[in-house]
Amino acid sequence: MSILAFSCSGSLCLLQLLSFVSMVMSQRSLDGEPTFPYAHCPPGSNNTASTKFMDNLGHLFKGNLYDESGKSLYYNTTDGEPPDKVYSNYICRFDFSPETCQNCVDNAINSVVERCNGTKEAIVWYPTCMVRYSDRNFFSTLETVPSIYSWSAANITQPFQFVKILNQTFADLIAMAPSNPSKYAIKEGDISDFERLYSLAQCTQDLSTEDCRACLNTAFDRVTEDNMQGKQGGRVLIPSCFVRYELFRFYEEPEVVGPPGPISPPNKGRRRKKNSSARIQIAIITASVVIVIAWKLWCEGEALELMDPVVMHSCDAVELMNCIHIGLLCVQEDPTNRPTMSSVVVMLASDSIQLPQPTQPAFSVGRVVENCAQSSSDGKVCSINEVTVSNVLPR
Ligand SMILES: *[C@@H]1O[C@H](CO)[C@@H](O)[C@H](O)[C@H]1NC(C)=O
Ligand SMILES: *[C@@H]1O[C@H](CO)[C@@H](O)[C@H](O)[C@H]1NC(C)=O
Ligand SMILES: *[C@@H]1O[C@H](CO)[C@@H](O)[C@H](O)[C@H]1NC(C)=O
Ligand SMILES: *[C@@H]1O[C@H](CO)[C@@H](O)[C@H](O)[C@H]1NC(C)=O
Ligand SMILES: *[C@@H]1O[C@H](CO)[C@@H](O)[C@H](O)[C@H]1NC(C)=O
Ligand SMILES: *[C@@H]1O[C@H](CO)[C@@H](O)[C@H](O)[C@H]1NC(C)=O
């Protein structure tokens, strides 16, 4: 954070990129970088779907898993008749626009179809959304298994104060979210003059107040389990609810500022001329290992999701995506695929150039720290093997 002025005036690509880089470096540790999507679909005869079920699922995914109005961040629907009836829902984090939500749901459908082909129950989590289907009617039902959690690698510096604020914060979240008709809450608390804790809790909207509260209590139990203690941030993902806390402001305030727009392909208009100092900075940035993170996010279509919200509010998202796009092109594995400096200049200045899609950059770094929580009902430990972690591949 420190070296970087946090201004977006003039919407300089440079400052936006630097803010992005600083956010990645200081707030999301490389080690703890959670890898999305998480898909959960245990193999085996118990989870093998009939052909008719797969037909119904295909039909549902082709068109039915959309809110008619296109406005909802939660939706549930069915297709077919028993015994091959499919129940399915999606939920998006409350601070995202319906367009971003639908984009995420589309990605989630694609990855669940790919990873869980032939199973009659599956769930997939992205940072922004969750998509789930089953042959059971799970609507309006509290389900706390499987649960997945991930945390940031960075250790807290003031354990007692941190845990105290964390406890207070979650007590407030668990009091507020269930009674909110939209079933979410955010809460902030000061750990010190320099550190502020940001937290979020959300249940699927079909849950009752009591079930939502029970789900969030389960989530908080996971947070307080040993592995999560002492870490600066974490998430718990449960079919019926999710929570997240960080030492940075990872969510948008929907009441104050509109959520970000859809993630558009970064090759259309609206680019302004950049001056030469910005271009030089871009070249420096692209040499950074941080580009790997940008690459991962790019592949997941989530590059904007993790952008510092302060930057998001005041900056031009399309322009920012352009900068990241060009940055990725500059670190292609094959040097012949990298643009020359003069073409980078043209790309930055042009409104209409069609940029090529980047492939995997030449850097590789990072380790996924993740785990599965113990199931509350049957005591079964959900191991890493049950969580299909994505390979990062270009789409
Ligand atoms: C399959 O389901 C049956 C009945 O629900 C259960 O008894 C059995 O243990 C399950 N088998 C596996 C491999 O999970
Ligand atoms: C969504 O779930 C609710 C129960 O929570 C149910 O009443 C409703 O019919 C479902 N919607 C669809 C389209 O199936
Ligand atoms: C799913 O599996 C079926 C049968 O094995 C196969 O024909 C189909 O192409 C697969 N679909 C996807 C999206 O992988
Ligand atoms: C956090 O603390 C643990 C245990 O004290 C230590 O092993 C680990 O290296 C620390 N992580 C970081 C990022 O400093
Ligand atoms: C925080 O909550 C946990 C679990 O409810 C409890 O064990 C712990 O003592 C609390 N810590 C503080 C500092 O309040
Ligand atoms: C170029 O950008 C820098 C900030 O990076 C700014 O100080 C300078 O005034 C800009 N030059 C022009 C010609 O806009």
UniProtKB/TrEMBL annotation:
PROSITE patterns, per the entry: GNK2
Domain called Gnk2-homologous: residue spans: 35-138, 144-250
Signal peptide residues on this chain, from the entry's feature table: 1-26
Superkingdom field: Eukaryota
Record-linked InterPro entries: GNK2, GNK2_sf, Kinase-like_dom_sf, S-locus_recpt_kinase_C
SUPFAM superfamilies, alphabetized: Protein kinase-like (PK-like)
Entry keyword annotation includes Signal: yes
Keywords from the UniProt entry: Repeat, Signal
PANTHER family membership: CYSTEINE-RICH REPEAT SECRETORY PROTEIN, CYSTEINE-RICH REPEAT SECRETORY PROTEIN 38-LIKE
Stated name of the protein: Gnk2-homologous domain-containing protein
Lineage of producing organism: Eukaryota, Viridiplantae, Streptophyta, Embryophyta, Tracheophyta
